[in-house]
Amino acid sequence: MALALENVSKHFGSLVAIRNLSLSFDVGSIYSIIGPNGAGKSTVVNMIAGSYSVTSGAIRLGATALNRLPKHRIAQLGVSRTYQNLRLFDGMTVLENLEVCFFPQSWLTFLTGAKRLSKAERLEICHACLAEFHLSDVADVLAGDLPYGRQKILELARAFVTQAPIVLLDEPAAGLNHTETKDMAAMIAGLKREDRAIILVEHDMEMVMSISDRIDVLNYGELLCSGTPDLVRTNERVQEAYLGTTEELDDIRKLAQSRRAQGGLRANAGIVRH
Amino acid sequence: MGNSVIVRRLGLLAVLALCVVLLALVPHLPSYYVRVVDSILIYIILAVGLNLVVGYAGLLDLGFIAFYAVGAYAYALLASGQFDIHLPFIVILFIGAAAGAIAGVLLGFPVLKLRGDYLAIVTLSFGEIIRIAINNADDLTNGPQGIAGLDRASLFGLPLTTPVHFYWLLLVLAITVCGGVYYMERSILGKAWRALREDQDVVRGLGINTTTLKLLAFALSAAIGGAGGVIFGAFQRFVSPESFTFQESLLVVLIIIIGGVGNIVGVIAGAVVLVVLPEVLHFAAQYRLLIYGVVLVTVIVLRPGGLVSPRFNLGFIIRKVRTLWLSPSKT
Amino acid sequence: MLDYFLQQLIFALAIGAIYGLIALGYTMVYGVMRLINFAHGEFFMLGPYVYTFIFSGLIGLGGLAPMLDSAIAIIASFVIVGLLGVAIERFAYRPLRAYGRLAPMLSALGMSIVLQSAVRVTVGPQPVHFPAIVPSTPIDALGGMVTTVQFGILVAAVLLMVGLTLFVNGTRLGIWIRAASESWTTSSLLGIRVNRAVSLVFFIGPGLGAMAGIMYASYYGIMQPTMGSVIGLKAFTAAILGGIGSIPGAMLGGFLLGAIETFGTAFLPILSFGYIGTEYRDVFAFAVLILVLLFKPAGLLGETVSEETTVAKKDY
Ligand SMILES: Nc1ncnc2c1ncn2[C@@H]1O[C@H](COP(=O)(O)OP(=O)(O)OP(=O)(O)O)[C@@H](O)[C@H]1O
Ligand SMILES: [Mg+2]
């Protein structure tokens, strides 16, 4: 199954957040979308998931045009996502947060019970998922009471529990510390599968470079460049857009080196947002 | 240790026995008190029904009493001399519930797109429209005079005429409704409703049709309201639009909030307090309403989360009883 | 026919202006606190009572010039009812801010019962004659169709609305109110004393409500403790119709509701060949509201709320 954006634009009033963007994603790989703040990364995710309408262009999953469908239909077709700012059901337990994903998807299945998982099956899947994401010990804790890092992981688990073929991750590592980010990267890399496309929006370059099969760089709503991590790393336009001009970059490097010599600052390309 | 287990079990039995004895004693009270208890039970049923929408799904419905009116008028029209139709009570009970559900879905459709307080005002309008329509559709409902002389109800050959008869009926029904709602609360449907209350956009993002979810909540709660209305009609043997004002809707909402939103135990407490309070205040004559209002505001300012803590719910009690009985050493 | 139409038009404008003034109170309170202030109708009811109390007090003391007495009594009712609003917010709503939206609403309901029954026990439940502020005589210059009272209501209401608009858009305090309605947290971070903005809203809203009450009572020459309930409900409908939270929306909603109700009830019997009569007057307001919300879920001038806008509010 392949997901394709064809000449997609998104306007907010007079602001053009995305301009004529064409991208395609196939199952079996991890794709990263990077770009400076406000480049339009989250907007892309929101448009695919149906949270935002598309101003022009089309988004297709296989042969189906997604951009005309209501949001829940898009999710039913196999698109799941996380949010840039945590959006868990805080007043429900960790287990319940996953269970909800198995709510029967139509009146018919709801009433007849056909194709509907039994409670035991549902719980088995959810517990297996919790184990996979190291959340078993907190299954009965309220999601809102978890520490931030584990909430991020729970949201990740919620996006994967239904085995959706398209998974959109909007800054899964935002706000995590260095070790947590590393764990998160390993976890996501481990989730790569033949029948699944993972689309990752992330500011942490280490993570992006280490786990992506392809990186798409956005700047002011336009595609700047697209390719393997090595290609993107060496692309000058990317460095300029992302980090400033090369001279500025040199200055920053020097500064960082001197700081490191003093034994303080940890170089961090990610911009932490809460 | 063996001793303390026995003591605990005995204590538990004593509490249960006390409840049963209290419930069994009610019929022997003077008729006035039985009527008050009946009234409490009716409001428990209504509030538990409305709680599905307000407490679980998080949709503020201020027109709930309209469904109650639909049920009551179903009885009035189908079991009286008005059109000389005399269906049995049990049949009308189901018709009333179904009519309530249909009205609920009809109300549900236009309000699905609305959020928060818009929903509140539309449901409120709906309630008023129903009341005014009843008030003016003279040919059908006799207008403001209402319909009197409704049939005496009977259930499976047993007469339903005195407050004591209704006490038993209402008790059974209240327990059924509470049990049913409790079961639903724990099912995946209940979880989806709670999720809906927390973040409706995310729920849609999980592939759940929130429209369906809301409609279901409306229909179920309206069915309970409709059934309650049928019993009310049979109990009073008289219906008029006056019983279904906006204030009645508010009273049911108040019961839910003052008890503790989304908590069946809280709803029961709320119903007891809000039904008993005005009765107790009879001595205050014309100051009654004033005192009622002051008490209301004071209670809510002092206990904004409701009288009953959210942790003290039916699930908690059942768990407690179960562990106490099966493995008392753990508690 | 044309005369009839004109007469109805003036009536619609006058009653619409009254709805609009009350709706302003609902909308402003909703704007800053996201609270449906169910007690608001009672401020409307208190207006004429406070006015009568002060006015007869002044007369009892010998009185000044009659017009001056009225003017003092009007201003005093604005201030007294406004201060009552501030006090109620302080003691019955503010402690509940952290507890979601149902608890303050319940408190408002309780306050509504308290206010109404307090008036009932002090002056009795029966309707009382309301002394005319200006004698009601037809104004010849306008073709004899309009009375001085109608004209006065219209002028006063429009003046109040213009004043409020100027205040909210042009003064520092007004900007505080708008900022607090826009975003509570951001405003407080920017050093706006949000609590003051709230108090101010709870002064102006009830004050305007009291003015509307005085107008209404002078129109019908009568006042009673329950007069706030139905009118309050309708004014709230008007606020929603215009888009709750929007100040121009409340005014628009008020006038629209007045027009719809008046013309609807006037022409409905004609249009339906007498089958549907004027008794459906109250249904009208609600039916129109539901219809409008079907097509514009946020009201006429309200901000549309979709996931796109809520996400924007949450993330940025
Ligand atoms: N709902 C919205 N309403 C109005 N403008 C929006 C909305 N969502 C995004 N924008 C604007 O569109 C542009 C792109 O935003 P987007 O959230 O996609 O950026 P981003 O690349 O995800 O940035 P970040 O790294 O900060 O998350 C920004 O200028 C933003 O202000
Ligand atoms: Mg973003």
From TrEMBL, chain B:
Pfam family, one: BPD_transp_2
Official protein name in the record: Branched-chain amino acid transport system permease protein
Main location: membrane
Cellular component terms (Gene Ontology): plasma membrane
Transmembrane segments: 40-58, 65-83, 89-109, 116-134, 165-184, 215-238, 250-277, 289-306
GO MF assignments: branched-chain amino acid transmembrane transporter activity
Signal peptide: none
Family annotation (InterPro entries): ABC_transp_permease, LivM-like
Location(s), subcellular: Cell membrane
Keywords (A to Z) from UniProt: Cell membrane, Membrane, Transmembrane, Transmembrane helix
CDD domains assigned: TM_PBP1_LivM_like
Tree of life domain: Bacteria
TrEMBL record, chain C:
Transmembrane parts of this sequence: 6-31, 43-65, 71-93, 105-123, 143-168, 197-220, 226-247, 283-301
Main subcellular localisation: membrane
Cell compartment(s), UniProt: Cell membrane
Keyword flag Membrane: yes
Molecular function terms, GO-annotated: L-isoleucine transmembrane transporter activity; L-leucine transmembrane transporter activity; L-phenylalanine transmembrane transporter activity; L-valine transmembrane transporter activity
InterPro entries named among the record's database cross-references: ABC_transp_permease, BCAA_transport_permease
Family matches, as Pfam families: BPD_transp_2
GO BP term (any one): D-alanine transmembrane transport
GO cellular component: plasma membrane
UniProt keyword terms in alphabetical order: Amino-acid transport, Cell inner membrane, Cell membrane, Membrane, Transmembrane, Transmembrane helix, Transport
Membrane topology, record value: Multi-pass membrane protein
UniProt KW DNA-binding keyword: no
Family designation: Belongs to the binding-protein-dependent transport system permease family. LivHM subfamily.
Annotated protein name in UniProt: Branched-chain amino acid transport system permease protein
Lineage, top ranks: Bacteria, Pseudomonadati, Pseudomonadota, Alphaproteobacteria, Hyphomicrobiales
